[in-house]
Design goal:
Blueprint: E1 3-4, E2 9-15, E3 20-26, E4 29-36, E5 42-45, E6 69-78, E7 83-95, E8 98-112, H1 116-119, E9 123-126, H2 143-148, E10 157-161, E11 165-166, E12 171-172, E13 176-179, E14 194-197, E15 210-218, E16 221-222, E17 237-240, E18 247-249, H3 251-261, E19 267-270, E20 275-279, E21 286-292, E22 295-301, H4 303-306, E23 307-313, E24 318-321, E25 323-325, E26 334-336, H5 338-341, E27 344-349, E28 358-363, H6 367-378, H7 422-427, E29 431-433
Parallel strand pairs: 4-9, 5-8, 17-26, 18-25
Antiparallel strand pairs: 1-8, 2-3, 2-13, 3-4, 3-7, 5-9, 6-7, 6-29, 7-8, 10-13, 10-27, 11-12, 14-28, 15-16, 15-17, 15-21, 18-26, 19-20, 20-24, 21-22, 23-24, 27-28
């Protein structure tokens, strides 16, 4: 494997509301793939894929490639809803100005339940830690490993900002990822960010980009959170995951959240879609504090990320909540998806011989300005802010177990808007079947 690295590049991302796509060249083909920090494998659909799910998207053609090498090893990912089947191989890829020769990836010849055409993506680029990769390390290394191996310790990082599409105004803000450097249009140096060690269970390898959650507040009211089910964790653990659209948490916590927001029947649970919905003009000040106790950073959420208008129902009077319940999450206690990540500049930095892997955060949302923008677009919220006498009761103990197995790997939320939540359900319970090498 040879890698040509020009240190420090910036790559634009395409915002399709439910996810962010990145352009990648594989062999002589150009693809848009999901930018996913919640998984670790690279795969794209091939011309052998004839299922309805993979129609009308660009496909990789083996016949047109001169640099493809197939291992003959099968590749299979089973999601809670949806699946991918294919073959492991190697190919030359280009990511921005980076070129990697003999990069391991998977050619998908069958996809089910993923609705690739709904977003126009042909696969996924996973950028989580290699320990969760479905493709066994004996077959090759991940894209992230190959890029980091050719960077110095201080440059072994990637960072991103996720823009927001404004349905009401028809405008959008930039989305991009940088590799090997920080984005100089956002920060001048790393001292502007708050860095926290990535959480991992003792004597276990890094798996997901995880941080402890110290608090979630609603209009300054602290929401009591369920105890963590992650071994060794004192506080609930959040997984920073660009491949998930919403913030996902334990059902009892999410229900308590929306019950607190609910004033004047402004919140409802849709039994058909199994989603929380909120009146489109309902504005709340939600903040998430991440890091270790005594050393944490509070990130305010834009009201548009709590009250999602691009998935509105009932004549645009009801919108989808940016926090949804999922008791199947087993990579952590909470998934901090795009509804959270749009509000921060995020840096993922690899571990070195002298320090652990780190996540750097910079707050990108001013709550006062965000509220004014929300009210200008949606109208004034006629209801008073949420108020509660005394303290909210602590949620009941969850009885959901956490699978401790190498098959627990992140996925992504994809699909047309009508099906946006199905992907979050399959993220947490992906099963991997991979034959051993010969």
């Amino acid at each position: 494997m040879n890698t040509s690295i020009t240190q420090g590049i910036r790559i634009p991302l395409r915002n399709v509301d439910v996810a962010y796509l990145l352009r990648l060249d594989i062999g002589d083909h150009e693809f848009w793939v999901v930018f996913d920090t919640g998984s670790a494998d690279l795969w794209v659909v091939s011309t052998d894929c004839n299922t309805a799910d993979c129609q009308d998207v660009p496909k990789y053609s083996q016949a047109e490639s001169h640099t493809l090498s197939l291992s003959g090893e099968p590749f299979k990912l089973n999601y809670l809803s949806g699946s991918v089947v294919g073959t492991v191989g190697t190919e030359t890829i280009e990511l921005g100005s980076y070129q990697i020769v003999s990069q391991t990836f998977a050619l998908a010849n069958q996809t089910t339940g993923l609705d690739l055409a709904g977003m126009g993506n042909s696969g996924i680029l996973g950028l989580a830690f290699p320990s969760i990769a479905a493709i066994q390390p004996t077959l090759g290394t991940t894209v992230l490993e190959n890029v980091f191996d050719h960077l110095s310790d201080e440059h072994r990082l990637f960072a991103y900002t996720l823009g927001r599409n404004n349905v009401e105004t028809g405008t959008s803000s930039d989305s991009s990822v940088t590799i090997g450097t920080l984005d100089s249009s956002i920060v001048n140096d790393s001292n502007q960010l708050s860095f926290f060690p990535v959480f991992r269970t003792s004597h276990s390898p890094y798996d997901f980009w995880k941080l402890p959650i110290q608090s979630i507040t609603i209009n300054s009211l602290s929401l009591p959170l369920s105890r963590s089910l992650v071994p060794g964790a004192i506080s609930p653990i959040g997984v920073l995951d660009t491949g998930t659209t919403f913030i996902l948490g334990p059902a009892v916590d999410v229900e308590a959240f929306w019950n607190t927001v609910n004033v004047g029947n402004s919140v409802r649970f849709n039994k058909d879609s199994q989603r929380w919905e909120v009146r489109c003009d309902r504005a709340v000040d939600v903040r998430v504090k991440l890091g270790e106790e005594g050393n944490a950073l509070e990130i305010p959420l834009h009201p548009e990320d709590v009250n999602v208008s691009w998935d509105s129902v009932d004549g645009d009077s009801w919108c989808t909540g940016g926090l949804q319940a999922n008791d199947g999450v087993n990579s952590g206690d909470w998934i901090l998806g795009d509804s959270f990540l749009r509000n921060a500049y995020v840096v993922h930095q690899a571990a070195s011989s002298t320090r652990p892997a780190l996540i750097g955060l910079l707050n990108m949302t001013d709550p006062q300005t965000a509220l004014l923008d929300f009210q200008k677009a949606r109208g004034q919220d006629p209801l008073p802010i949420s108020s509660v006498s005394g303290q909210l009761s602590r949620p009941q103990t969850r009885v959901v177990g956490i699978a401790v197995a190498v098959c627990v790997v992140g996925g992504l939320v994809i699909g047309v808007i009508a099906a946006v939540f199905y992907g979050s359900r399959r993220r947490s319970q992906r099963m991997v079947e991979q034959n051993s090498t010969v």
